[in-house]
Amino acid sequence: MIRYFSTLALAIAAALATPLVKAEKVMVYREGQLVIPQDVADVLGNTRSIRLLADAPAAPAKATAVATGSRVNALARPSESTRAARNDSKAPASALSLPVRFAFDSAEILPAARIQLDALAKGIKLLAPGSIVTVEGHTDAKGSPAYNLELSRNRARAVRDYLVHEHGIDAARLKTVGYGPSQPIEDTDPYSAINRRVQFRGA
């Protein structure tokens, strides 16, 4: 009987706590969209995101797409469309998402992804020394959850390694985690390509 009431109390506490976890704002870049280093620094330097448990990164709030600007030439000058991600909402974004291209069923980063990753690296270098950035791997829901989880972990590590080896960012500043298909961007089809992404957040 005591065990029953203990379980019931835990269930009620969890139910009451659930509304405290709100959808977070995520700056979502499309493939080919210009990534502005200062925008990266602004988002990753914003560490005020609301979490139920500050020391439990395995269960972040659901992502909300706030930036889906039109496809633009990655080498073009910044324009209003490239800054749509930043201005779509008054609330500051707490993470940013890049559609990093990998070889099929692989963690090999394709050349098409490098322009955005290079701009991201410049943004990380604008952060205060010692700032920590979490690199999150995400997949769509195609395939088995276990396979996608491992793939997302490997891809997050591949991006970390790229930032370390190509841009000299201290590996100790980059934490990695994989979520597989478990954290789709809110209001998107879990099978949609937009959920095949690498997401970054300041710690």
Written description of the protein model:
The protein has 203 residues and is an alpha/beta fold. It contains 5 helices and 6 strands, in the order αβαβαβαβαββ. Helix 5 links the parallel strand 4 (133-138) and strand 5 (174-180). Helix 2 (37-44) crosses helix 4 (114-125) and helix 4 (114-125) crosses helix 5. The relative contact order is 0.20.
Task: List the defining traits of the structure above.
six-stranded mixed beta sheet; 15% strand
SSE arrangement:
Elements: H1 2-17, E1 24-28, H2 37-44, E2 63-65, H3 84-87, E3 95-98, H4 114-125, E4 133-138, H5 145-167, E5 174-180, E6 197-202
Parallel strand pairs: 1-2, 1-3, 4-5
Antiparallel strand pairs: 3-6, 4-6
Alpha carbon gyration radius: 18 Å
Structural class comes to: alpha/beta
Helix content: 25-40%
Number of strand segments: 6
Mean pLDDT: 78
Instruction: Please report the distance between the alpha carbons of the first and last residues.
Output: 42 Å
The description of the largest β-sheet is: 6 strands, mixed
Q: State the strand order across the main sheet.
A: 2-1-3-6-4-5
Order of helices and strands: HEHEHEHEHEE
What's the shape? globular
Number of helices: 5
Strand content: 15-25%
Stretches where pLDDT is under 50 for at least 5 consecutive residues are 3-22, 48-63, 67-89
Please give a quick description of this structure.
This protein is an alpha/beta fold and 203 residues long. It contains 5 helices and 6 strands. It is globular.
